[in-house]
Amino acid sequence: MFFPSLFLKLCVALACGILLADVLPPVFIPAAAAGTFGILLLWCAYRWEAYAWFGALLCFMLMLTGALTAGLGRAAPCDSAWRWPAEQTMGDRLTYAGCICAEPVERPRSVRLRVRLYGLGIEDTLVTSALREQVLLYVARDSAALALRQGDLLVWRAAMEPVAFVRDGFDYAAYMRRYGVFRNAFVPAGDWCLAASGCLPVLSQMPADCRYRLLELLRRYRLKAPNHSVVAALTLGYREGLDAELREAYASAGAMHILAISGLHIGVLYALCHVLLTPLRRRSRGRVPAAGLLLAFLWGVALVTGFSPSVTRAVTMCSFLELGSEMKRQTAAWDAVFVSAFLLLCYRPLWLFEVGFRLSYGAVAAILWLSPGLLSLWTPAHAWQRWAWQMLCVSFAAQAGVLPFSLYYFHQFPVFFLLTNFIVIPCATVILYMTLCLLPLAASGWFPVWGGKALDAVASLLNASVHFIERLPYATLRAISFSETDLFFTAVISGCFILGVTRRRYSWMGISFALCIVWNALAMLG
User: Fold this and answer.
1) The pairing of beta strand 192-196 with beta strand 166-167
2) Alpha-carbon 286 to chain mean position
3) Which of 139, 155, 168, 484 is most buried when burial is the number of CB atoms within 10 A of its CB?
């Protein structure tokens, strides 16, 4: 049965509600949600038998709940709720205080900080606000700015201006407004000072501290600068050390997914833990402790990486699969996908707008959807042929799943992505395993020189391969025009076509071809 999970309908309803939060009036959402909930209570009390209407009302209430949670998760600009001085106008240089709530990002001439605003200085008095608006600060690059960390409390003097940035049709200001970021400012050297450290809540400060300590241990192996930045991104999710040239090389070669910890990395760690815990599983009472250790390790990895959307999705899926295995119930992969998506959107509704969240679920859905049919086309006789064929099918399916989003957000397409995956995935797996071995040794006080040299050599091979592929002729198709309308038609046409192929229903293929004609007609008229 295709799409067997009930959570598919729940996810669609919740996602539609989150998208409607930008359209519906704020007052309408809670009133409609309360009215729908009252109707559902009456329905349950009188035990009406029209279950189809019950399901429709449940989905409608869930849609309104998504809109309500998404609206509550967004902050409002301070102008509407904070008592600013009467003489303040845009462009005035005032004194502010705030806490760095995300990893600092190094730029050629500045360090970008995402700061949660705590208060405004008026005549040597700090006026605090309960409304936690966030601002973007671009601090002049120097040794003091480079030493800033997540959780540091800053006091600065600057002129705050509205965020306004649009490029290639992407409205960066609207994107940042979803997360309560309305203003930005450039802060010259000397116009800011560090007031305190470790000011975030415990659950937010702990991942930053863990990652910082692991980065310090990794630095003691004295890897070359580009190799260290790649290893830190691949194993700890710390991508702020990557320079623009290296990022562009990985994006052009189609290997950017390696630098963001995602399902590939969690899958490798999940398989490794299963192998290491096999002796414990074979004991009569060892299955439950083994499952507990595995889940604790995976959620520890999610903690170190800051609970990014892609990592949280992968760890949640693996948790459901592992729990289903321990309960001796076969948990379908589709069920794990939909349950994880539903729970994550309930926890963080605004993750629906995250690029990593969309790419992650697009890739895993395409792999589960396409790869079984592709793998059935050929049954290799040798082990190395099976490995190569599986790599080819999974890479093709994942690229098909993320293609609409990559064209819309990045406006480029890596031509040699299949060749790239054949090289970077084995290298990334080796780097991940080596780092898992070297970091505990470093924590114990032993830094094997040969281990650092071997890790540096594999990272150099990975970077050299990426640069080689990136320099091939026609390696990247750039400046591809792709709008929101194109994104919608591409997703719907691909889904109908694949649905027709997998279920052998030619009516779906006819619908996909009809949508292609409509899409081309709209493009010609536009």
Assistant:
1) unpaired
2) 34
3) 139
| Better pLDDT: 139 or 26 | 139
DSSP 49: S
Query: What's the token pair of residue 234?
Result: 């691949």
Q: HEC profile for 267-296?
A: HHHHHHHHHHCHHHHCCCCCHHHHHHHHHH
**Angle 329-331-337 (CA atoms, 0-180°, nearest 5)?**
160
The two tokens of residue 176 are 């940042």
* Token duo for residue 173: 């200001």
Query: Which one-letter DSSP state was computed for residue 88?
Result: -
**Residue corresponding to tokens 């939060």:** 21
Provide mean pLDDT across the span 289-309: 85
Residue 284, Cα to own-chain centre: how many angstroms? 39
Q: What residues contact residue 405 under an 8 Å CB cut-off, 6+ apart?
A: 355, 358, 359, 362, 487
Q: Per-residue DSSP letters for 352-414?
A: GG-HHHHHHHHHHHHHHHHHHHHHTT---SSHHHHHHHHHHHHHHHHHHHHHHHHHHHH--EE
Phi, psi of 448 (to 5 degrees): -65, 125
Task: Note the pLDDT tens digit of each residue in 115-135.
Answer: 988 877 665 566 665 556 788
d(CA 267, CA 336): 14
pLDDT (tens digit per residue) in 391-449: 888 888 888 888 888 888 888 888 888 888 888 889 988 998 898 888 888 888 787 88
- Assess whether pLDDT exceeds 60 at residue 293: yes
Query: Hey, what long-range contacts does 76-84 have (CB within 8 A, 24 or more apart)?
Result: 76/131, 76/133, 76/180, 77/133, 77/182, 77/183, 78/117, 78/129, 78/131, 78/133, 78/182, 81/129, 81/131, 82/120, 82/129, 82/131, 83/127, 84/120
Cα–Cα dist 9/338, whole Å: 9
pTM of the predicted structure, to 2 decimals: 0.80
Mean pLDDT of 88-111: 76
Give Cα 117 distance to the centre of its chain.
Answer: 24
Gap between the Cα atoms of 468 and 475, Å rounded: 10
The DSSP-derived string for 162-211 is E---EETTEEHHHHHHTTTEEEEEEE-TTSEEEEES--S-HHHHHHHHHH
What pLDDT band is residue 366 in, cutting at 50, 70 and 90?
confident
- On the question of pLDDT at 476 being above 80, the answer is yes
pLDDT at 192 over 50: yes
The SS3 assignment for 116 reads: strand
Among the listed ranges 79-83, 170-174, 207-211, 385-389, which one has the minimum average pLDDT value? 79-83
DSSP letter for 330, please: -
Mean pLDDT of the chain: 78
Facing residues of 88 across strands? none
Burial of 77 (0-12, 13-18, 19+ CB in 10 A): middle
Taking alpha carbons only, the member of 495, 514, 499 closest to residue 401 is: 495
The pLDDT of residue 457 is above 90: yes
